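Hi everyone, sorry if this is the wrong subforum. Our group has a chain we'd like a structural model of before ordering constructs, and none of us has done structure prediction before. Sequence below.
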Amino acid sequence: MNKLPKWDNESLNSKNKWFEKTMNEYGDRLTKLSYNYTKDWNLAEDIVQDVFITCYNEYDKIHSIVSFKAWIFRITINKCKDLIKSSFFKRVIMNEELLKSTKASDLSPEMALIKNSEEAFLSVCVLGLPIKYREVILLYYYEELSIDEISEILKINRNIVKTRLNRARLKLKVILERWR
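Answer:
Right subforum, don't worry. Here is the predicted structure as tokens:
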């Protein structure tokens, strides 16, 4: 028989306050991070919900985690990669992208404005990078993590992080120069 832990009102209230604070602090950042992997806001939001469910369930172990930020980013990245590897993602999402590319090329005025925005163009270029370069760019520039933190999150050597950053910058430079 599976026994659920008994929570008194004070500890349950403390857990709920911690959970709400965590969601407020990391919700937007994790959604953006997930979006940069999936390129779909709905999927990104679903992934972040899964991440927060994991956090809630792991509350008792939170004090043993050395770097909570690295831990929660790692969970998010793993869930994104699991989704990308899934057959559902390959069948449904990739086919949806194919349909989008075959639609009429006339853009609405709003989309034309966004397309002409340099920041939006840079985002599109970053999203076009292979995943191993995209993730280091996102973590370094958008999340402002250090090389060591990225190394810890991705579980790769810090020299590999530096190499990937340099290669990603070169790829972005080539893309940006080609379009100017």
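For your construct planning: The CA atoms of residues 67 and 115 lie 38 Å apart. Confidence is low (pLDDT under 50) at residues 1-7, 98-104.
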